[in-house]
Amino acid sequence: MSRKPAFFWWVLVFGTGLLICFAGAGVEYWRHTREAKDLGWWEESRNGSWYVGSIVRGSSADGVLAVGDRIITHEGQQPGPGWLVTRVILMVPIGGSVHFTIERNGRRMEVAVPVRRVRIPMDWGIPILATGSLVCFIFAVVIGLLKPADRTIQFGCFTYLALAALQLAKSLDSMYWVMDGWGRVMMGLLALSDPLPAATGYLFAARFPRKVPGGRWWKAIGMFICIATFAEWLALTPYRVMWMMDGTHLVSNARWLVAVLPFYTLVPEFFYKLLRLLAFVAIGAVLIRNYRALPNPDLRRRIRWLVGGMVAALAPGAAVYLAVASFLVTGFGVAPGTPGFERAEQVATAFLAIVSSGALAYGVLQHRLLDIHVVVRRSIQYLLAKRVLQAALLLPVLALVIRVVVNPQVTVRGLVFDSYHSLGVAAAAGLGLAYRRSLLVLVDRRFFREEYNQERILRTLIEEIKDSDSISDVSRLVSEEVEAALHPQRVLVFYRRESHGDFTLGHSSGGTEPELRISGGSAVLRILEDSAGPCDLPFSDSGVDLSSAEREYLERLEVCLLVPMTGSERRLVGILMLGDKRSESPYTQTDRELLQAIAAQIAVVYENISLRESARREAQIKRNVLAHLDGGDINLLKECPRCGACHDRAAERCAVDGAELTLTLPVDRTIDGVYRLDRRIGSGAMGAVYAATDLRLSRKVAVKLMVGSLFGNRAALRRFEREARAAARLSHPNIVAIHDFGALASEGAYLVMELIEGRTLRAELRACARLAPDVASATFDQLLEGLSAAHMAGVVHRDLKPENLILARLTGGGELVKILDFGLAKITEVAEYNSLTLPGAVVGTLGYMSPEQLLGQEVDDRTDTFAVGVMSFECLTGRRPFAGATLQELLQSTLHQRAQIPGEGVEVERLNAVLARCLAKERAERPHAAEVREELVDAMRQCPAVASSAPAGKEVSTVDATRSF
Fold it and tell me: Which residues are catalytic?
C-alpha cells in the first residue's frame, strides 16, 4: 500500500469527504425536501428606506404587520444592502420569530412575526440532480483508484469529483433556507468546486487518450482558460463563504462582504457564459487535434467515444436553451425562469453528468472498445429482439386493461383516442415482431456492410485443413479463409522450427519483416501454453511479465488476438495471430471457439506432416549411411527435437525432457573417435554446429558438420577443406580459433572450433531492435579489427551478417566480438537457383550481399566492407538499408538505391558520408576495412540515437533476406 501514488490517497481522502457530504445530503433530503418557510410578507425598498410591500392573507404576519410599515431595525440591526436585509430575515429558523422595529403612522412599534413551517410538494429536481451527482462521484473514484499514476486520469478524476460536488450542491439549493447551519456549511463547501471543471476538463481533454505535443497556441489557450477560471473562482469564493453564514455572522461580517462581493458583478454575466462556451469549444478543438495526431485506431475510437458521449450528453441542454432562445425571439418555446424551464434544466444537467461519465468510463477503463457504429448497430438489434418487442406489445395492452379496471365507466372511444400513444406503441411493436428478421437484414444492408456467413466459412475450413498435406498450403488456406470470414487487418501463422524451440513465420497475409520469429524461451509462449484458448493482447491476468522488448515486438506485429496451436502432450506447435477486425468490432465468443477449433486441426495436420517428414529424412539418412559406410556398425547420432541434446543410437527418448529422439545426420556421435557431440547449438542451410567435448584434451569445443545434402559432394568437400585451412591460419582475438578439420567416413566433413558462450548479434537485435551508438561503435571497432586481420592474411569472409558475430561477456566487464564462418560451406551453384539468372556462383546471404556478389562477379575484401555497411545501418536503425516485396525488387534496391540514415545534424551527415562509401555500388569506390575502421567507429560514436522507421512510401521486404546462398 505504501507504494501507491500520492494521488491514490488524495482520491481516498477527497472521496471520503464527498461521501460524507452525500450522507449529510441524504439527511437533509429526509428532513426538508417537503417543507418551506412561511413568512407571510414581502419587503420593498423606496427612497433608501425599507417598507412592508405586501402581506399574505391568513399568514402569521397578517394582523401583525401592515402594508406601508417602514422597517427601522430588524433583529436589532439597521437595514443595510438589499441582499443583507433579505438574507437576515430568511435565516430565522422555523419556529422562531423575526423581530422588527417599525414606524406606522408616525409611531414606532416593536413587533415579532412568527416563522411557520409549510408542507410543499416534493421537488423532483432534487433526486434527478442527486442521481447525476452520484454517478459522477462513482466514476471519478473508480478511475482515480484504478489508475492513480496516469496524469490524464488525474485531471479526469478531479473534473468529475468537482462536477459531483457541484451537482450535489445544486440539489440542495431548494432547501437552503430551511436547512440547519451545518447543512448550509456543507452546501457552501460543495459549491466551492464551481467553476473549476471548465479548466480541469480542458486539461483532461488535451491529454486524452494520450498526451500529444502541442504548440505555443495550444499552451496559450490552456493557460488562458486556467487563469480565467481561477479568477472567476476567486471572485465567487466570497459568495460561497456567505452561504455558510447564519444571520448573526452575516451582520457582523457585512462590512467586508459589502467590499468583496461586487468583484464578481464587475464583469458582465455574459462574459462568464462566454467563458464556458469557449472552454467547450476549446475541448472540442483539442480533441480534434489529438484525433488527427494519433493514428492508432484504438486511441481514435476512445476519442470518438468521448466526443460522441459529450454530444449526446449536451443534446438535451442544447435543446432547452434553443427553446428559450426561440421564446425570446418569436414568443414560441420555453420561457426562462418558469418551473418547466427549471425542471428541464435539471434533467439536462443530470443527463449531461450521467451520459458523459458513462461514455468516458467506457473510453478510459475498457481494454478493447467497440466502435460507436457497432454499438448503434447492436442497440438496434437489441431493440428489434423478440423479447423486447413482445414486452413493447404487451405493456400498452396491459396499461389499457388497468385503465378499464380502475375506471369501468370509460367508453371505448375515450379508451382509444385518449390513449393513442399506447396504441401506437403496441401497433409498432406488433409490426416489428412480425417483420423482425426482415428489419434486421434491412438494418445491416442500409447502415453496415453485409456480413459474411462466418460460421459456415470457418467450419468448412476445418474440414479442408484435414485434407492438406503441406504446411505452406495449410497456412495459405487458413489466412485466406479467416480473412474472408472475419476480415482481420492481418493474419500471421507461426510454427515451431524443427529441432529447436524457436517459432518462425509460416505465412503472412500482408507485408512484414522476413525474419519474424519468436524465441523458444519467450514469456509469450509460456502464457499461451498455460492458456485454455485464445488470448487478447496485451495480456492482462497471465501472471507472467513480458519484457519491454517483447511488448514492443508484439506491438510491431499489429495483432490483438493470439490463438495457440496445441498438439499432443499439450505441446505448443504454432500460433495463429490476428489483427483488429476492419469493422473495429471485437472477436466474439463464437469467433474464438471456431478459431480454437481451426488451430487444433492445424496442430494435428502439422504433427502428421512433421512425422512424415521425419520418417522420410530418417529413411534417407539410413540410405546415405548404408551407401557411404558400407554397412559398418556405428553409434549413429540421435537428437532431441526439443532441446537439441545428442544421444547414442540405443537411446529412444531424451533424458532431459522425455521427447522421442530422431536421426538427423548420418554420422557417429563421437566424431573421429575424439569429439563427442553433446548438443546442437545452431544450424543453417549447409551446416550444423554442436557443442562437443574433446575427449583427448578434456575441453569444450564447437564442431561444425557439413549437412547431409552435401555429403559425397567432392567439390564441396574440397572447398570446405580449403576454407578451413585458410581460416586456421588466422589467429586473432576477434576471430573464432580453428582447432581441427577432418573428413567423415560418410563422405562428409567436420570443423572443430573454440566454443564461445554468448549470443549472436542477431539475437541482440531481436531483443532490443537497435543498438545505442556507443554500443554499436564498440562492437564494430572489434569487428573491423578482426576483419582487417583476416584480410591481411588473404581471407575474405563473403558472408558477414549478424548471425555470424558472437558477443561474449568478459569477466571484468565489457564484451568481446568474435567472427564466425569465414565462408565455410556456403556454396551453391547458380543452377540450383536459376530464377536469379545470374552467371557464376553466388556465395553469401541475401540482404548482405554486395552488388558484385549478386551479379556473380569477382569479389575481394571490399565485398566484406559492403556487408559491414549494411550491418552498421541495421544496428543503428533497426532495419536493413535495402528492401523489396519480391526477390527482384530486393536485387534492384541493392543495385540502385542509396541508403540514408534519417536525421539532421553534422554528425548524421558525417555518418551517412562514411556509409555511402562502404555501400558504394562499385567495388573500387569502397575503402578497405583497415582504412574505414577509425572513421566509421568515430562517426557511429558521435551520431545521436536514431529512431527506427521504414523508408517513406516503401514496403518493408517480404523476401527472406537472411537466406544463405
Answer: 799
